[in-house]
From TrEMBL:
Keyword Iron: no
Keywords, alphabetical: Calcium, Disulfide bond, Glycoprotein, Hydrolase, Lysosome, Membrane, Metal-binding, Signal, Transmembrane, Transmembrane helix
The protein's name: Arylsulfatase G
Annotated family: Belongs to the sulfatase family.
Entry-linked Gene3D superfamilies: 3.30.1120.10, Alkaline Phosphatase, subunit A
All residue ranges annotated as the Sulfatase N-terminal domain in the record: 65-404
Species of origin: Ictalurus punctatus
Organism superkingdom: Eukaryota
Cofactor dependence: Ca(2+)
Amino acid sequence: MTLRTSGVSNCCVLEESVLTSDLAFQMAEAGVCVLLLFCSLFSGLVYYINFFFENGDKIKMKERPNFIIILADDIGWGDLWTNEFDNTTPWLNMLKVEGKRFTDFHSPASTCSPSRAALLTGRHGLRNGVTHNFAKGSIGGLPLNETTFAQLLHDAGYYTAMIGKWHLGHSGPYHPIHRGFEYYLGIPYSNDMGCTDKPGFDLPSCFPCAQSKHSSRKDGGCDTKIALPLFENQSIVEQPLDLWDLTEKYAKAVATQILTARNRRQPFLLYVALAHMHVPLFHNRFLNVTAKEAYSASLRDMDSLVGSIKLATEAFSMKNTLIWFTGDNGPWEQKCEFAGSVGPFLGKWQTSKGGGSAKRTTWEGGHRVPSVVIWPGHISPNTTSNALLSGMDIFSTILSLAGVDPPSDRHYDGIDITHIVLHGSDTGHKSLMHPNSGAAGQFGDLQTVRLGHYKAFYITGGAEACGGGSGKQELHDPPLIFNLNKDEAEGSPLDPASEEYQLVLKEVEREREVLLWDIATDNVSTADYTVSQSAVPCCQPQNPACRCHSPH
Ligand SMILES: *[C@@H]1O[C@H](CO)[C@@H](O)[C@H](O)[C@H]1NC(C)=O
Ligand SMILES: *[C@@H]1O[C@H](CO)[C@@H](O)[C@H](O)[C@H]1NC(C)=O
Ligand SMILES: *[C@@H]1O[C@H](CO)[C@@H](O)[C@H](O)[C@H]1NC(C)=O
Ligand SMILES: *[C@@H]1O[C@H](CO)[C@@H](O)[C@H](O)[C@H]1NC(C)=O
Ligand SMILES: *[C@@H]1O[C@H](CO)[C@@H](O)[C@H](O)[C@H]1NC(C)=O
Ligand SMILES: [Ca+2]
């Protein structure tokens, strides 16, 4: 079978002849953006497709499943599978219909670095040492004696690659290439931590990168001096990167990595940490949208990238692939129309005092995130679980499915939920603690406790709201307790004199003591948060804005 393409129009002919009508129909639904993305994806890969067909269709993969973990940035619970945005996300809607959706799933923290560290290690920040965000100039990162699921799967024979945002220390041995990933393409931290030549939508809006030493300026957190770098392995291949073709680059890299694993006849782990939905927002570069439409255009762009990841597994017959999509924390409310939706989880007790109740807080909007998992033939399609779950469970669950044991000289907070994923059980965590993530208290301290459908706060505090206000930190002894079954908006705490309150309080205290004691007697790590100018990624220090271009 020989396929040839020369540009978009031929590419679309290729699709019609190769794809089943079912898939073509789904793609039509997903709209022009996906088609274009898909075309550009495959126009670069026809060589590989030729190679693949000529080498025989029936390459047998080992029994162990492939894993693709897709982590969105700052996405809101209400951004997916709600009426508000349903027309915007056809591919993620398809994931929901083909897989299992989790409605009570929580990011391990409500800000980037701690959430990602806990996802990769299955341990709270109090154990793995990462309790707040790393900076552009951080010399440290996720402590080196913490073990990521990528290291464990790699050691067990998996091909491992990461595409996207790391934010766990990029300097020296902290770079993803030393933390279990054989290949890396992505940005070392958030996409607002450096300028680009064509800035995306942000508040305040940012200037392009400086062109000369004299034109550099600083404004409202936007730095025009250090451009956002794109790394491939340990090399900066583009600085500043072009936000507007990042989606396409990531889509191509995903397909190439899947093919690499296939050619090596190894099961694979792909960790795809999207730049979407963090500000600055960007979208398909063929669209021209207003600020008001920027969020949904970006959401659609993210959805098309998820679609091309799914299509790549199908196009290369990698049916034995589990894809798990979730988010790292809730919406960044302070960014107003450029922030996502918390859905019904309004955190009313907090907002009535003037603070924001999403990202950086332990209100539901801060850490309850969308989550769905598919694995054709293994996970019942179109099912939902309301079990209390955490992003840390991904660690224990994929290791269990791969038959890999994590190191036994430390304790884990994630649980193996294969019984929920595969067998329809609905029993998750009895209790789950949420770490302080910037809005109140010491970073990382576990002062918010979920117990069944109850939630207790020993400390409250608001993040900055759209328009500026932020609620003051308040200690609560006895804690505020909400019944989420009756009050998902966390508006009115239970009466401390009630029998219900007293029963819940006893159990909350017990669960919290057990966990804190367990952490106190565990092997825990400490992260180095020292900052140095020398650690800032800069391809050409003598150039304004650290500019350089890749050779290709
Ligand atoms: C990235 O590193 C891997 C592993 O060392 C290597 O196989 C691959 O060729 C590298 N890719 C690039 C573009 O440097
Ligand atoms: C985008 O739309 C605006 C308003 O509709 C228009 O003024 C502008 O020229 C358009 N830009 C491009 C590049 O088409
Ligand atoms: C999925 O489940 C929902 C709710 O149970 C149902 O309304 C819908 O028709 C199902 N969709 C498919 C494609 O089976
Ligand atoms: C901590 O590490 C030491 C040395 O590796 C080990 O002997 C001990 O059992 C570990 N503690 C826990 C709680 O796993
Ligand atoms: C990491 O190393 C430090 C210092 O050697 C040690 O105290 C800690 O227990 C180690 N962490 C783990 C998880 O083993
Ligand atoms: Ca984030």
